[in-house]
Amino acid sequence: MDFGIKGRRALVMGGSRGLGRACAEAFIAEGVATAICARDKQRLDSAAQEIGAQAFPADLSRPGIAAQLISDVIARLDGLDILVVNTGGPPARTFDKTSDQDWRDAFEGLWMSSVAAIRAALPGMRERKWGRILLITSIAAREPVPNLMLSNALRAGLHGLVNTLSKECAAEGITVNAMMPGYTLTERLVELGVKEAETAARIPAGRMGRPAEFGALAAFLASQQAGYITGEAIACDGGLLQSI
């Protein structure tokens, strides 16, 4: 299917690996001029060269960086039509082991960087009367995952942002949606110590997800055909949310 986005311009935050990279690859396959950002410049440059994206090194946990990133991408691509907000997952913590500084760091890196990026990207989308904003959250935003206190709390709040902002932008041709990945075969799950066989046994599909499947969802939600889908939080989880 032709998704009608050839020639559009996209930025995928956190696009050097995992789900972000999968989204970038899906856009590039559709003919979208795609930029990716990440903190690790070496890994970012390598990924950009491999998939044909433009690289923008950025540490989104630092105040002001997200807005500057959007400005730089708009200047390089001559505009921005599709924004994928993908912030790194906060460290695993229980409530008792989460300090005030942990909360502040997670809020700045996960919440405020998302708000700043969206705020910077919206004016151009409004001017063109077309835009796609996608936030990668997690099934943890709907069904809390043990030991992920920071992610459980803050990502759920992002769904409120998605739902509210979508209503403000709908008449301007801009959609705003959240994508909730389930257990997908990425480096993040390795870092969290998730055991593949044990986890797959809990998933109705009988396996963990593949990054390309998540990328396909992003490409569809960014498509011309998905212009009437907005304010949603869509799971890509093999049926897990319905079973836990």
Can you summarize the main beta sheet? 7 strands, parallel
DSSP helix fraction = 40-55%
Give the amount of beta strand, in percent: 15-25%
Alpha plus pi helix count? 8
Mean pLDDT: 93
User: pLDDT below 50 for ≥5 consecutive residues: which ranges?
Assistant: none
Count of individual domains: 1
What is the first-to-last residue Cα distance? 34 Å
What is the CATH architecture assignment? 3-Layer(aba) Sandwich
- The third-level CATH topology is Rossmann fold
Radius of gyration: 17 Å
By CATH's scheme, which homologous superfamily applies? NAD(P)-binding Rossmann-like Domain
Topology:
Layout: E1 9-13, H1 18-29, E2 33-38, H2 41-51, E3 54-57, H3 65-77, E4 82-85, H4 100-128, E5 131-136, H5 149-169, E6 174-181, H6 187-191, H7 196-200, H8 211-221, E7 233-236
Helix pairs in contact: 1-8, 3-4, 4-5
Q: Would you kindly provide a written description of the structure presented here, covering whatever features stand out?
A:
With 244 residues, the protein is of the alpha/beta class. It has 8 helices and 7 strands, in the order βαβαβαβαβαβαααβ. The model has no long low-confidence stretch (mean pLDDT 93).
Q: Could you give a short description of this structure?
A:
The chain is of the alpha/beta class.
Main traits of this protein?
244 residues, Rossmann fold, 8 helices
